[in-house]
Design a protein that fits this description.
The structure holds two protein chains of two kinds. Chain A is an alpha/beta fold. Chain A is built from seven helices and nine strands, in the order βββαββαααβαβαββα. Chain B has a single domain, classed as ABC transporter involved in vitamin B12 uptake, BtuC (Orthogonal Bundle), CATH 1.10.3470.10. At the A-B interface, helix 2 and helix 4 of A face helix 8, helix 9 and helix 12 of B. The complex binds adenosine-5'-diphosphate and magnesium ion.
Chain lengths: ~240, ~270
């Protein structure tokens, strides 16, 4: 059964719809890429999946047992964090902040999980470093480790490679591929890099007003949306 | 000089000032870390002016000043935090609007009523050396819950301060913690007005965290250092004011400025 299923979902702000009639589903182990131009509503869809935003019509159905606060989330980077004094370990621990516990205190288990996830992402030796002094790629790994603390099953990423140099971008993609294939983590990633989406994802969702394409990645290029994309490439 | 200080600190009014002042300074510094990092520094300033306006109007109408000021400031804090999020009036403009408006109302109210100069001055510039026993008890009654709540919810406050949208996504009720910080800040500011005066209280909120951020690299060390810096600056300021007969509130702010410069230089040396 599908982990998440969208039926005729419409999303918008102040009565104006940004995207309409979304029908898609995400299965366990999928790697779904959401593509589309700036302003096509990708971040808005992520907010809806996180339960931070209501659908203006339609319905998002979550599989029984997948609580919305068990979703690991990697937000689009904000400028406010640039000069924030915090150690890597402090940031990763906040992945556990949503769990029901005695006030906000972290348990032994929370701390072990943070350390484990830091070692999965290869940032153990950065533990006591200051977050703001890290490179863009390292910061994204820290935020990814934090997201993994919040979930065992599903990661939502909003443009995780924006602002990274080409090497760090490749690293990030490899890392996500590894998490998906070897750790069985379902991934939903927003991106406007269609080429990378084609290489790594198993399914694609292309937004433009409503949904231009939803289906297997391998069928994308032969679809209408794929032809538009290829046409755009030729003209560029 | 030492003799003078020993003599001063043996006086009950001085002991009350030090006791009340330190607890309020530490509370202001802790809350300040979160406010400064969320780019809400000016809210402390705005709230102190609202508090001033409320107190002056209340005493003009013969109401108990604190009983009026505390709810008014709490409401203003909610409005400012809410306005900051809406796009109609941008956050900094909203704060300036409310802050100057309240100040003007206070000044007009005090000029309409005669014989208020004493009160006017004391709320503008503070009367720390004139704290009564009940002032100290009220300060403690507010500060101790502030400290306890801050420690209990420290991790959640950090999570919300660092990344509100992530915190919301994992199920932290960010609105509740924002409101908590707003209410605690309002309380500390209204009480702080008695010590420092409306003009200077917001420096107690802002300076210590900015100072500790020059040197400290983790959130926890920023919070702890802010509290310590704030208490030490308070002591230096009050000693200087007694020894050299300077205005107390301004002396405390100046000792905060000195601490900031020292930490700034240390930070520069450490990083180079
Ligand atoms: N908080 C908001 N209030 C009103 N409109 C918004 C808000 N956030 C986004 N929008 C609008 O919704 C549209 C989609 O935005 P977004 O989902 O961020 O696009 P994307 O992530 O695909 O670039 C844009 O036209 C944007 O202007
Ligand atoms: Mg976006």
């Amino acid at each position: 059964m599908a982990l998440i299923e969208a039926k005729n979902v419409c999303l918008g702000y102040d009565g104006h719809d940004v995207v309409t009639n979304l029908n898609f589903h995400v299965d366990r182990g999928d790697y779904l890429c959401v593509v589309g131009e700036n302003g096509s509503g990708k971040s808005t869809l992520i907010k809806a999946l996180l339960g931070l935003k209501k659908c203006s019509s339609g319905h998002l159905h979550f599989l029984e047992g997948l609580k919305q606060n068990q979703i690991g989330y990697l937000p689009q980077q904000t400028a406010a964090q640039k000069d924030f004094p915090a150690s890597v370990y402090e940031v990763v621990l906040t992945g556990n902040a949503g769990k029901k516990k005695f006030f906000g205190f972290y348990s032994k288990n929370d701390k072990r999980k943070a350390l484990d996830n830091m070692s999965i992402l290869g940032i153990s030796e950065l533990k006591n470093k200051c977050y703001r002094n890290l490179s863009g790629g390292q910061q994204q790994r820290v935020l990814l480790a934090r997201a993994l603390c919040a979930t065992e099953s599903l990661l939502l990423l909003d443009e995780p490679v924006t602002g990274l140099d080409p090497v760090a971008t490749e690293d990030m993609y490899d890392l996500l591929y590894h998490l998906n294939r070897d750790h069985g983590i379902t991934i939903i990633m927003v991106s406007h890099d269609i080429r990378a989406a084609l290489r790594y994802s198993t399914r694609m969702l292309h937004l433009r007003g409503s949904q231009l394409y939803f289906g297997k990645t391998c069928d994308y290029l032969s679809s209408e949306a794929g032809r538009i994309f290829m046409g755009g490439e030729d003209n560029a | 000089m030492l003799d003078t200080l020993v003599l001063m600190f043996s006086q009950p009014f001085m002991q009350r000032a030090v006791f009340g002042g330190i607890v309020i300074s530490v509370c202001a510094a802790l809350l300040g870390v979160s406010l400064v990092l969320k780019r809400y520094s000016m809210i402390g300033d705005g709230l102190s002016h609202v508090g001033f306006g409320a107190v002056v109007v209340a005493s003009a109408l013969n109401f108990a000043p604190l009983a009026v000021a505390i709810p008014v400031v709490v409401i203003a804090a909610f409005l400012l935090l809410r306005l900051g999020e809406s796009s109609e009036i941008k956050g900094d403009a909203a704060v300036a609007l409310v802050s100057t408006g309240a100040l003007a109302i206070g000044v007009v109210a005090s000029s309409l009523t005669t014989g208020m100069n004493q009160d006017f001055n004391s709320y503008m510039f503070g009367t720390i050396l004139g704290l009564s026993k009940s002032d100290v008890i009220v300060s403690l009654a507010v500060s101790i819950p502030v400290l306890i709540l801050f420690i209990l919810f420290y991790n959640r406050i950090f999570a919300v301060t660092f990344d509100e949208s992530f915190a919301k996504a994992v199920g932290v009720k960010a609105g509740v913690y924002n409101a908590l910080v707003a209410v605690l800040t309002s309380l500390v500011i209204v009480l702080g007005m008695r010590l420092m005066g409306a003009l200077l209280i917001s420096s107690l909120v802002i300076f210590p965290s900015l100072t500790s951020m020059r040197v400290c690299k983790t959130f926890r060390s920023v919070v702890i250092t802010s509290g310590i810096v704030s208490a030490v600056c308070f002591l230096f300021g009050i000693c200087a004011s007694v020894l050299y007969d300077l205005p107390t509130g301004a002396s405390i702010v100046i000792s905060n400025i000195v601490a900031f410069v020292i930490f700034w230089i240390v930070g520069k040396i450490k990083n180079s």
